[in-house]
Design goal:
Number of helices: 5
Number of strands: 14
Distance between the termini: 30 Å
Structural class: alpha+beta
Order of helices and strands: HHHEEHEEHEEEEEEEEEE
Radius of gyration: 19 Å
Oligomer: single chain
């Protein structure tokens, strides 16, 4: 999955390449996405490159190549260009996905049959927000009693801002898809369609507050149009 702006930019580049044979300029991309500055385009291109959707060709101006499109648009193209996604940590560095954490070693077939597989969608910062990661990296098995109704996914936690809520660096959190939250719930929040963070959801008048569970971090307050909820915390897995 891509953020709305990432998806818009990818499709704009793809269509321009089909029509003209060359990618659009940064000014054209900025105008097409109605962004205030080119820095926003640079961030989006970096995010698309790190997720394996595009590639910048070296030593050539305006040289972008579309490697794949979202599965819902062009599954055939993606099958032809098999890609093994990497996960970003921070804004630039790359790390490879960790081995899927195991809750327990199944002792018989009944245990295996009872477990439920959910996708791990990358790493989320529990401290300073990072670019939203929505590319499936692998799957993990969880017990059925950890899963309630609805769709679920998992995220690997990076950072220490939620330690007083019992969420530590390296934990894997189980998230139920949701676009609304009750004040006090821990949510996956998307800020400005570009950054993802794991925080406690609060309201301050007409504004939304994303509250850390570590006194070293300040509560961040945003206008309601700048924050969207992508899920609520329902469980946690920790490897020792």
């Amino acid at each position: 999955m891509l953020t709305r702006k990432q998806h818009e930019l990818l499709m704009f580049i793809h269509e321009r390449l089909k029509e003209a044979g060359i990618p659009p300029s940064f000014d054209e991309m900025k105008e097409a996405l109605d962004l205030a500055s080119k820095s926003g385009i640079h961030r989006l291109i970096t995010a698309l490159e790190e997720r394996g959707f595009i590639r910048r060709l070296p030593n050539r101006a305006r040289a972008l190549e579309v490697l794949r499109l979202p599965d819902s648009i062009a599954p055939g193209l993606n099958a032809a260009r098999k890609f093994s996604p990497s996960v970003i940590q921070g804004s630039l560095g790359r790390v490879q996905p960790k081995e899927a954490p195991r809750l327990q070693s199944p002792s018989n077939d009944d245990d295996v049959a009872a477990s439920i597989s959910i996708p791990v969608m990358g790493r989320i910062a529990a401290g300073v927000p990072i670019a939203a990661i929505e590319t499936r990296t692998h799957s993990i098995s969880v017990p059925p009693d950890m899963i309630s109704g609805g769709e679920h996914y998992a995220l690997e936690v990076k950072g220490d801002s939620m330690i007083e809520a019992g969420i530590f660096d390296g934990d894997t959190v189980i998230i139920r898809n949701a676009n609304t939250a009750t004040p006090g719930e821990i949510v996956v929040a998307i800020v400005d369609d570009e950054e993802a963070t794991l925080k406690r959801f609060r309201r301050k008048g007409a504004s939304i507050a994303l509250e850390a569970a570590n006194p070293a971090y300040e509560t961040r307050i945003f206008g309601p149009d700048r924050v969207s909820v992508r899920g609520k915390l329902v469980g946690l897995i920790r490897r020792y």
